[in-house]
Specification:
heterodimer, A: 114 residues, mainly beta, six-stranded mixed sheet, 12 strands, 0% helix, B: 115 residues, seven-stranded mixed sheet, four-stranded antiparallel sheet, 11 strands, globular
């Protein structure tokens, strides 16, 4: 079945450092890909999405490019802030299957120190 | 308005109590979801309503009973819960355009503790 694999955390960075959180997927169809963020004590927020190969999603300084050849959707940010400390989830929905179900990665916890 | 609201924010209940969680959205979305999330884990899908009809039940125990009174409202009725049911319960909604790029919008969740 479809699956999402994220790099294990926790990731600890200093403010203004470069961030990469790796995400790879397996899917039988042509999935749409998402990054969600969960700040401490809150629900999940959609951070960005991409729906086809080579699409780049971007929001709040975060970017991720849908790479079909490497089945990846890595999240990047050029300069992190303390306020970016959160858990980041990579997810997909399968175009060929039940598109109401999100397949989730296990999440990557990010801590940014001042 | 891209907001999904949930009440209550926190709930403590005994194993013999009956309580309900409520969720509301005013984005015109036609699909609504209940998820359960344990600490430091991804959310687990429980139920999906599409156009006010239950379309997915992920083999959830009958002590959880969903209800969709109209396209904007979603309830989760709780009865005879177990301590292991303590978790963050998240509601979400999506346009349900029948396309895989339909993003889901989540509420802030209800933190449930079963004593």
């Amino acid at each position: 079945g479809d699956s999402v694999t994220q790099m294990e955390g926790p990731v600890t960075l200093s403010e203004e450092a470069f961030l990469t959180i790796n995400c790879t997927y397996t899917a039988t169809g042509y999935p749409s890909l998402f990054w969600y963020v969960q700040y401490p004590g809150e629900g999940l927020q959609l951070l960005l999405k991409a729906t086809k190969a080579d699409d780049k999603g971007s929001n709040k300084g975060f970017e991720a490019t849908y790479r079909k050849e490497t089945t990846s959707f890595h999240l990047e940010k050029g300069s992190v802030q303390v306020s970016d400390s959160a858990v980041y989830f990579c997810a997909l929905t399968d175009n060929a299957g039940n598109n109401r179900k999100l397949i989730w990665g296990l999440g990557t916890s990010l801590a940014v120190n001042p | 308005d891209t907001e999904v609201t949930q009440t209550p924010k926190h709930l403590v209940m005994g194993m013999t109590n009956k309580k309900s969680l409520k969720c509301e959205q005013h984005m015109g979305h036609r699909a609504m979801y209940w998820y359960k999330q344990k600490a430091k884990k991804p959310p687990e899908l429980m139920f999906v309503y599409s156009y006010e009809k239950l379309s997915i039940n992920e083999s959830v125990p009958s002590r959880f009973s969903p209800e969709c009174p109209n396209s904007s409202l979603l309830n989760l009725h709780l009865h005879a819960l177990q301590p292991e049911d303590s978790a963050l319960y998240l509601c979400a909604s999506s346009p349900d355009r029948g396309r895989s790029n339909d993003e889901q919008y989540f509420g802030p969740g209800t933190r449930l503790t079963v004593t």
